Amino acid sequence: MASRIRALLGRVRAQVADDLRSDPYLPFIVLLAGVLCSFWFWHRIPNFATRDEKSRLLDAMVPIGRMLADPSIETLQNSVEWSRVPFGPTLYLFGLALLPVLLVAVLVGDLWAFTELGYPDPEFGFYPAWHTTPEWIWTWSLVFVRLFNAAFAVGAVYLTYRLGTELRDRATGRLAALVLTLTFGFLTIAHEGGEDMPALFFFLLALYLLVRYVRAGDRTTFFAASAAGGVAIAFKLTAAPIVLLIGIGFVLRAWGTEEPTWSALFQPWLVVGGALLGLVAILAGYPTFLVGAVDPVLERLFGQSVARGNRVTGPTAPTWWWFLRGYFSGLGLPLFFASLVGVVASLATLRDRATYTPAYALTVLPLVIYLLLFSRWHDFRVHHLLPTFPLIALLVALSLIGLREREPDIGTAVIALLLVTTGIYAGVGVGGYASMPRDEATEWLQDNADGNATMEVYRRDFHDAAVPHDMRINHLFGPEDDAEAAAIVDCPEYIQLGYRDLLYLKNGTYYRNGRAQQEYFRELLSGEYSYRIVAEFGPRPPNFVPDRPTPGSLTDLFHVGLVPQTDQFADEQELAENQYTVILQRDGECGYGRFPPF
């Protein structure tokens, strides 16, 4: 087994080296992907881009800290089980990213930040733990986490190139990789730490290995595809369609041999061995399972996965509206319409490409499966659509390269137009990371607020606000215990409102309704409580009322596909348009009558 693994890794290294030597354009595509995926990757640091990014990092920090403070089997079990949910390999991945930070903490005498972390208080999104831990630990932990994520994104671009090459030729691979590199929804996920991008990488790796197996029939490749698919599922349950695809790939290989079909299909050791490898990869990917907590993992795999389709996280709207919203935002209108035409055109030419049927089937089928899967959900977001982006890029590239062969002038012009328009959309979107309103608000507070000033916020989680690491905070969302209530300042120096707070001012918004909150914010903004606006960051919504696309309205959605950095609806990495932040400062005596309804 070990020799087979070494041989497989050797073939991988040889393939990568051969591609970089043989294709003069590939190094530039990889370089472009690296630049776009990592441009201004430090946005929001030392704060977090998403709630998941924060919880995954704490999931790794808590076991490390607890084991350093009290090494024992019981400590390991309790600290691993502490995680918000049993998300799997991100604990290993984030733990690896933490190693250099841990080493430096030992050298500079800050190891106490890990050993005294304990089991953090969840108040205000674990703000007390974040506030008391040295800022440099969060900064460099997030730097390594996001660089890891960007590396997986670049790997996904290369695997898309490989799939395109297997599908047809290097030109198809180049164009598919370039289209994916310029897909804005793909680039946004590359700018956060989490499980989505690693899951995509291993999904594409499994798919590529499966295509190679169908072509050559090498059993080691089939086993490797099964293991990679299991890792992908452990990272993200939405990678589960790879199980069906592995079965389809096995059948396609049986059909493609000279043996009788039933004889080729009867390979129990191959089927059982692949299934066991995938299962082991999934279970080993859950540290919670390895320390003996089986029930949470089973609930995650078989309970939450089924319930997600019916979980309400957004407004009730037709399925087509959710698809258009996600793809308009993730692709931009030029690439969306090119994708629509390209996918249809590539399907229409299937009969003319008999020699490419197995690879083609393993490109089309997962796209169909994902579209059917999400069509059964109440709602979904851009990051859920992530696995479909490289599949769409492959089919678009396939149809455009075919057009260029038939009509060289027209095909070249269409490809150039698509790349330029999509590149502008993606370039403007990625460039927006350099001027995020919350980052600018944080810098303003660091430069202008006194060291002992208190700021009041009304968010459930501090990553939703512009919060300097060393600033005192009034957090007024939800009931406080006696200690929290005693720490609240009656008349703080500053009050901060953000885009999500202002949703209370918009009648009929999904779940952020409340007459008391609406009246309080309107009075606060009009100067009713001796507070005046001293700074704003990002474009102010008209009369402070955010304008979101109406559920079910097609015309409202076009703005989402024309302007990058718009609201992607509940994807936690909020982009510039819904990062609008307004800072109010008290300009009078501390009076009475201000009762924030939170």
UniProtKB/TrEMBL annotation:
Topology of this chain in the membrane: Multi-pass membrane protein
Principal subcellular localisation of the protein: membrane
UniProt keyword Transmembrane, yes or no: yes
Organism: Halorientalis regularis
Keywords associated with the record: Cell membrane, Glycosyltransferase, Membrane, Transferase, Transmembrane, Transmembrane helix
Protein name per UniProt: Dolichyl-phosphate-mannose-protein mannosyltransferase
GO biological process, one term: lipid biosynthetic process
GO CC terms, sorted: plasma membrane
Molecular function terms, GO-annotated: pentosyltransferase activity
